[in-house]
Amino acid sequence: MNESLGRKVEDLERLLVRADLEHGPAALASSLSAEDMVITDAILRHKLGIEIFTLDTGRLHADTLNVISAIRERYGYDVRVFRPDPAAVAEYVGRFGRDAFYESVELRKRCCHIRKVEPLERALAGKQAWITGQRRDQAATRAGLNVREPDEARGIVKFNPLADWTEGEVWDLIRERDIPYNALHDQGYRSIGCAPCTRPTVAGEDVRAGRWWWELRDSRECGLHVAADGRLARSREPA
Ligand code: ADX
Ligand code: SF4
């Protein structure tokens, strides 16, 4: 491993230990994609007390769900799975149609709210800190991301330990440590969300070009990382 990546890995591990000891109970929100697997590996190889959960929206690819078994096989750890409220899903599907998210940004955000945002609230209940795999260079909306930021809406701390990592560094570590990963990444998927809202990207496109690709760039966030009052949760604390 080159020196610069080695230093980033040390920083990552140090930050996770701190999140566990000083900000626990803490949890990693894992979408089961490459970035989250780098963090998962660091948590589980050091047997930290950080919980790892995923939000199973009911619309994920089978390959994404297979990562849960891969984690169990490799590390003997059962990822905690949160699912949407079945009554809320049934109401949306009955009123608007299962795939109504293609019709408008409003209906798309409503679907994300039911399938991701509300389950996230349940997943974070009782937690003092949460950890994400977001990186600054994933999107213009993430350029201001800090490694540590206050989650003001919830009154807890949010850590984005890979904020300054590049996509290449994520993959270098995955190869170096033979970390399990979502098979879709080998089929051109660089950022992976729900199956009907994610497509592979082609050369020259940006990392998140395959997410909600039918929408304008600025609306392409699912609401997990937006403050409750609708503002983007921006950092005010230094790293
Ligand atoms: S997002 O718009 O779907 O949130 P992205 O896929 O880039 O964007 O994910 C960014 C981070 O949000 C992930 O690293 C992870 O921490 C969290 N996240 C996204 N989707 C999920 C999910 N289904 N379950 C748990 N965490 C998730
Ligand atoms: Fe619904 Fe698509 Fe959002 Fe998944 S990403 S919750 S399917 S709108």
Characterize this entry briefly:
The chain is an alpha/beta fold. The protein has 6 helices and 6 strands, in the order H-E-H-E-H-E-H-H-E-E-E-H.
Largest sheet: 6 strands, mixed
What is the CATH architecture annotation?
Answer: 3-Layer(aba) Sandwich
Rg, please? 17 Å
Percent of residues in beta strands?
5-15%
Number of strands: 6
Spatial strand arrangement across the major sheet? 3-2-1-4-6-5
Distance between the termini: 24 Å
Q: Give the overall pLDDT as a whole number.
A: 92
Shape: globular
CATH fourth-tier homologous superfamily = HUPs
> Count of helical segments?
6
Question: What structural class do the secondary elements suggest?
Answer: alpha/beta
Helix share bin: 25-40%
List the domain count as a whole number.
Answer: 1
SSE order: HEHEHEHHEEEH
CATH class term: Alpha Beta
- Ranges where pLDDT stays below 50 over 5 or more residues in a row are 227-239
Enumerate the distinct ligands.
Answer: adenosine-5'-phosphosulfate, iron/sulfur cluster
CATH topology: Rossmann fold
Features:
alpha/beta, Rossmann fold, binds iron/sulfur cluster, 10% strand, 239 residues, binds adenosine-5'-phosphosulfate, 6 helices
Question: Would you mind describing this structure in some detail?
Answer:
The protein has 239 residues and is an alpha/beta fold. The chain has a single domain (3-186), classed as HUPs (Rossmann fold, 3-Layer(aba) Sandwich), CATH 3.40.50. The protein is built from six helices and six strands. The chain has helices spanning 3-23, 34-45, 62-75, 86-96, 105-124, 167-177, and strands at residues 26-29, 51-55, 80-82, 129-131, 148-151, 156-159. A six-stranded mixed beta sheet has the order 3-2-1-4-6-5. β5 and β6 form a beta hairpin. α2 crosses α6. The longest helix has 21 residues, at 3-23. It starts with a helix and ends in a 62-residue tail after the last helix. Residues 227-239 have low confidence and may be disordered. Bound molecules: adenosine-5'-phosphosulfate and iron/sulfur cluster. The site of adenosine-5'-phosphosulfate has 17 residues, from α2 and β2.
